[in-house]
Design brief:
The termini are far apart. The chain folds into two domains: 173 residues, Peroxisomal Thiolase, Chain A, domain 1, CATH 3.40.47; 148 residues, 3-Layer(aba) Sandwich (Peroxisomal Thiolase, Chain A, domain 1). The N terminus is likely disordered. Helix 3 packs parallel to helix 4 and helix 8 runs parallel beside helix 9. The protein is globular and about 55 Å long. It is an alpha/beta fold. The strands form four sheets. Strands 1-7-6-4-5 form a five-stranded mixed sheet, sandwiched between helices. The protein has eleven helices and 13 strands.
Length: 338
Amino acid sequence: MKRDSSLVTKAAITAVGSYVPEEVLTNHDLEQMVDTNDEWIRSRTGISERRIAKNPQHSTGFMAVKAAQNLCQNNHIDPSTIDLVLVATITPDYQVSSTAPYVATQIGATNAFAFDISAACSGFLYGMSTAASFISSNQYKKVLLIGADKMSSIIDYTDRATCIIFGDGAGAALFEASDNGFGFENAIHGNDGIGREYLNIQEGGSLYPINENTFNAGKHYLNQEGKTVFKYAVKHMAETSKKVIQNNALTAEEIDYVIAHQANKRIIDATTNHLGVAEEKVLTNIHKYGNTTAATLPLLLADFESTFKKGDKLIFTAFGGGFTWGAAYLTWNYDYQN
């Protein structure tokens, strides 16, 4: 029996926030560190600079707290009214202690249940479905979803294959039950375990615990096979986005904006070309932040919040280590008010 869509409670984004470190690492700075140059980096990635949290105390948790506080302060949200805090990250403050409870405590979300989501660059996208499920089931009314990563903590700055790509940052979105019919519509997610061969940190997990030899060899840093990751990313981001568009009986012309994971400008371009979406509808900020992993999608929302209008049709898509990927359809809930 077909379910009456009018009876479904939608989860809408009602506020966004962000935080990026003050320290800027430019392509010209990297020219002094590795064998590369500004033109080479920009032509292959679209990145001109990225933010780096150089202070050792400015951890993923620190940035997540800042992004959440930015959201709450700018939108007059009382943190004690938040029911659930989700932190999507692959760079938690500690391996054993979950980062989300710390963030909830630090911002004063004293009544919130909290847990982490680990899905690499797809973490925020997976978190959107998680937040929507908790709200549509009427378990919670206010869900704070944060994407945050301190990628500089796992990058080898002598490896030009990775150090030119990644940056640090955090973004947050508040989900609440919609009273106007707009909000999270649906999503498709996927994964393929073969991905851990091509994008990983080789040592430090339970399979290969870190020791002096592996540490000295730099096996605790991020490693990726760029060509393989590129191929999988374009294929799966394009395919799942197409399916989401078709499932919602949409056309490329009807889509107002594409919110794509900021992994690489060439990946974004190749993916959206497959969708047939006009270039001006594809939002990007990779040039100034680089790839902030779980933070890229919410940072886009925060940077372009004033652009969105109530009812705008947004397609989200991401691809990350694992491999993980997916796409989602969301209708924007509000008009921006400064």
